[in-house]
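Supplementary Methods, section 5.1.

A reviewer requested that the exact input to the structure prediction be made available. We therefore reproduce it here, unchanged from the version used in the analyses.
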Amino acid sequence: MKNSLPLFTKPGVSRSSNMRAIKSKGNHSTEWRLRSMLVRQKIKGWKMHNQEIIGSPDFVFPTKRIAIFLDGCFWHGCPICGDIPKTNCEYWKAKLARNISRDKINTRQLRKQGFTVIRIWECALKKNPTRYLQRIRDTLERSRELETY
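The structure derived from this sequence is encoded token-by-token as follows.
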């Protein structure tokens, strides 16, 4: 199964231990999809999971000061398909609200540092990957134009 979230919890295994086991990076359905698109299109100059940059963007073009976050629909509270579990609902509401707040703070801080921040929902990348690849290309092109002034 490619999806990072399990469809069910095994008997005897708590939801919290199940959720802890889910990796926060290396998700094949999002990060690896975009990574392979960048490689196929010969787009260079990016790094994955640069922990020296606020928020540890999934992809960063350090010389262009472009940070790309691929936000998982569950963990980042997608307004279209994000879902709050029915068990321990208050905990999950608070947890997801903290994640959303942290994402906004990180985006604001990166912009103050001169970064262009691109946030892409997991579901949006699945639905229309070429749209987001073009958005990245356009952002890279704009940064090249700014270098010539």
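The chain has one domain: 25-147. These observations are discussed further in the main text.
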